[in-house]
Design a protein that fits this description.
This protein is mainly α and 195 residues long. The chain has helices at 2-8, 15-33, 37-56, 58-78, 88-97, 103-133, 136-165, 174-190.
């Protein structure tokens, strides 16, 4: 949002510096909060790469992070779609329900995991396409505003659809779902199993 604000203020020249600053704050904070030398070393390497890009190739620093974040999130979902794996959305649904999913919800969760994967990879591809074909203002509006609105729309819209389509089942609140996702993420980060 800071970068998009810089574009709107006519100070696009500040965008790489803002991206570098936020990236360094995030990686430094994670390095301090992370236990174990390997993750800390990886974060320090990322911080060094951010500094190098800021000095040597600021445009890469500007255009790469939005695409990289969407690709990473897409892989987070898509990697669970292989045969024999529980789809990511099915994992969240199972944690929410506290039991195995009925077959119709299980199929729906697999489809929804596909939808999330496609959306995230699509956002990355559109962002990269706009980076090379569109004015900076258009690219920034897409990656810094429209893509987040698309993600929010899918999240909220899916929740409303699921409550109507599968009304015969119990559904937690949106806030409860966010807590489950956050708890699962923390458990994965520490190597523990989510309850």
């Amino acid at each position: 949002m800071l970068s998009h604000g810089a574009v709107l203020a006519g100070r696009a020249d500040l965008m790489p510096s803002l991206t570098a600053f936020v990236g360094l704050v995030v990686t430094s904070s994670l390095a301090v909060a992370t236990s174990g030398p390997r993750p800390r070393m990886l974060l320090l390497v990322v911080a060094a790469a951010i500094l190098a890009l800021w000095r040597l190739a600021p445009s890469l620093l500007l255009f790469t992070p939005p695409a990289a974040l969407n690709v990473a999130a897409g892989v987070f979902f898509a990697s669970t779609l292989r045969e024999g794996r529980e789809p990511r959305i099915a994992t969240f649904a199972r944690l929410e329900r506290g039991e195995a999913l009925p077959p119709d919800l299980s199929g729906y969760a697999r489809t929804l995991t596909w939808i999330w994967s496609i959306l995230l990879f699509g956002l990355a591809a559109i962002g990269l396409l706009l980076a090379v074909t569109a004015p900076l203002r258009v690219w920034s509006a897409f990656v810094n505003v429209a893509s987040y609105l698309a993600i929010a729309a899918l999240f909220v819209g899916e929740y409303a659809f699921r409550r109507m389509r599968y009304r015969q089942y119990r559904h937690g609140s949106l806030l409860a779902l966010i807590r489950i996702v956050a708890r699962d993420r923390r458990a994965r980060a520490t190597g523990a199993r989510a309850p």
